[in-house]
């Protein structure tokens, strides 16, 4: 968010500033070598800007850099008017003017992975900007070396030929489309997918899809994943053998939505979901990418879906508590299949020596009312845990780095843990070791207790039966469990950390809420048997595909463990 904005502004300033400076140095001074060096630096800055701002239009900067290089080239040759250099200049001008339109046109084409089709045009179109930057850098080096202008002309002609081929193929696709649709559409018709997963989110959000892919594959029916941002295509494709199709426009979606499709699944409330929901021949099912008491988990937008798969009754109650009126028949309780590999520990945590504590701070959210991030006060928490001899697993939210302040706070925590590991030998886990080398399930299974902000991690951890603490970063005091019911079976850390010692004693020693957690577990995660927990989701999905609307029936005593006898009192039927 703020970090992205800073990077984008910096990239824009560098690309523009260096391009202007390079031209002025070459045109107004005799320092040709310095000017050519600045031109190459401007090209590097423009390349970085395209990474930070994929849709950046730096035609003006590129034109200035090209002019600086050509003027420098002419000075180096010092041979008066050179026809080859003049033709090179005209060809470069054409490339500068055409690269962005060709890139944009190529970006509107359907692309696919894990399908037996090859479409080179959109890929080449997307790289034309880099090709032009490389060409200009090559011309700068040729100018420094004093190579003949014919060398520059040959290099420009080669890149121009590639751009012309891209333009011709894009024109053919638009004005003379092949019979039976595009190659991607024909391949999908042969694949005969029965359902799709529609995904639209900013880069870095692919975990929302990858957590569901193993279970979609276990449904046992052919399917496809439709992504709406180009950055998602390679990352999602690497996580599944199913076809992954990038559809940048609604016209592209028309090509991918083949007649065999019956159901569309969604994992978030992205704005582009509406592009797919307009296809009324499909049944639209919201899965979500986690279950938590956060405000976005009761988004009124959920009402537009035909069905809403939820982990437990608590999710249904959450909508009602937020005043979101959704017909009861839209909800299907399917559990949270991602917890099936979490090890269950039924006994309370009484005085464990050298416990391992998992700490999972969330991010600051898009809006102030969804900011539950505890990183600003976390140093006190970690120091108290270290004083108790705890080993800490620090696993931050994937979006943490998008906020510069959060990134700095996380950096201080990792330094603290690294210093303690060097001093005490305790094997704290943090950074990429916690976020990439270990899955969330592995982090849960390694730990004895959890400290978390309001997030879906608590719901997943609840399955283990182990104790957890929740940070009250909204400073609600006694009203906090009313707003976030999961906190009622956990130990609440105040925003000022004034009760941190009391909470850690309950979390790691006395654990008075052990029995209450089992009732909460049933409410949030359903009562499905541990040996076939994920089957609840799989059966529900298959029934949607087969046109059956009944939900799988949960069984009492989920996970093979007795429910707390006070469950009926704590959670009366609604």
TrEMBL record:
The chain crosses the membrane at residues 84-102, 123-145, 151-171. InterPro entries: Glycerophosphate_synth (IPR007554), TagF_C (IPR043148). SUPFAM superfamilies: UDP-Glycosyltransferase/glycogen phosphorylase. The keyword Transmembrane applies. Residues 549-574 are annotated as: Disordered. Keywords: Membrane, Transmembrane, Transmembrane helix. It comes from the Bacteria. Gene3D superfamilies: 3.40.50.12580. This is CDP-glycerol glycerophosphotransferase family protein.
């Amino acid at each position: 968010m703020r970090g992205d904005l800073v990077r984008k502004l910096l990239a824009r300033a560098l690309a523009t500033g260096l391009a202007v400076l390079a031209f002025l140095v070459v045109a107004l001074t005799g320092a040709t070598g310095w000017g050519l060096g600045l031109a190459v630096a401007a090209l590097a800055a423009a390349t970085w800007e395209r990474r930070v701002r994929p849709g950046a239009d730096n035609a003006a900067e590129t034109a200035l850099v090209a002019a600086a290089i050509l003027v420098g080239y002419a000075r180096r040759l010092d041979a008066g008017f050179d026809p080859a250099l003049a033709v090179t200049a005209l060809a470069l001008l054409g490339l500068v003017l055409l690269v962005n339109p060709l890139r944009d046109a190529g970006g509107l084409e359907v692309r696919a992975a894990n399908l037996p089709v090859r479409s080179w045009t959109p890929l080449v179109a997307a790289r034309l900007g880099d090709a032009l930057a490389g060409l200009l850098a090559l011309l700068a080096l040729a100018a420094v070396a004093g190579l003949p202008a014919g060398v520059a002309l040959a290099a420009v002609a080669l890149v121009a030929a590639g751009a012309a081929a891209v333009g011709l193929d894009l024109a053919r696709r638009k004005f003379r489309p092949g019979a039976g649709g595009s190659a991607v559409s024909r391949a999908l018709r042969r694949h005969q997918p029965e359902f799709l997963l529609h995904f639209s989110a900013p880069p870095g959000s692919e975990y929302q899809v990858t957590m569901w892919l193993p279970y979609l594959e276990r449904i046992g029916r052919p399917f496809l994943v439709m992504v709406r941002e180009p950055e998602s295509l390679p990352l999602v494709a690497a996580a599944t053998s199913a076809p992954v199709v990038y559809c940048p426009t609604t016209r592209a979606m028309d090509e991918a939505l083949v007649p065999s499709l019956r159901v569309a699944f969604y994992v978030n409330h992205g704005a582009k979901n509406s592009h797919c929901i307009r296809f009324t021949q499909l049944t639209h099912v919201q899965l979500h990418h986690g279950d938590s008491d956060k405000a976005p988990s009761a988004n009124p937008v959920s009402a537009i879906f035909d069905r809403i798969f939820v982990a437990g009754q608590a999710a249904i109650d959450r909508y009602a508590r937020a005043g979101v009126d959704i017909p009861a028949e839209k909800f299907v309780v399917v559990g949270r299949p991602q917890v099936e590999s979490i090890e269950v520990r039924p006994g309370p945590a009484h005085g464990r020596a050298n416990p391992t504590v998992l700490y999972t701070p969330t991010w600051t959210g898009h809006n102030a009312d969804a900011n539950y991030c505890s990183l600003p006060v976390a140093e006190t928490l970690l120091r108290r845990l270290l004083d108790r001899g705890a080993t800490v697993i620090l696993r931050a939210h994937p979006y943490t780095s998008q906020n510069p302040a959060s990134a700095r706070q996380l950096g201080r925590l990792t330094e603290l843990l690294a210093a303690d590991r060097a001093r005490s030998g305790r094997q704290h886990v943090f950074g990429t070791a916690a976020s990439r080398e270990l899955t969330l399930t592995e982090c849960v299974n390694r730990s004895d207790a959890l400290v978390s902000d309001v997030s879906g991690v608590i719901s997943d951890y609840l399955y283990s039966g182990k104790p957890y603490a929740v940070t009250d970063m909204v400073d609600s005091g006694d009203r906090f469990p009313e707003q976030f019911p999961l906190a009622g079976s956990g130990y609440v850390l105040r925003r000022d950390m004034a009760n941190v010692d009391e909470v850690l004693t309950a979390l790691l020693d006395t654990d008075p809420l052990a029995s209450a957690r089992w009732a909460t577990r049933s409410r949030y995660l359903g009562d499905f048997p541990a040996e076939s927990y994920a089957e609840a989701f799989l059966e529900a999905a298959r029934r949607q595909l087969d046109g059956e609307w009944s939900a799988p029936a949960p069984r009492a005593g989920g996970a093979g463990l007795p429910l707390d006898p006070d469950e009926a009192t704590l959670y009366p039927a609604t």
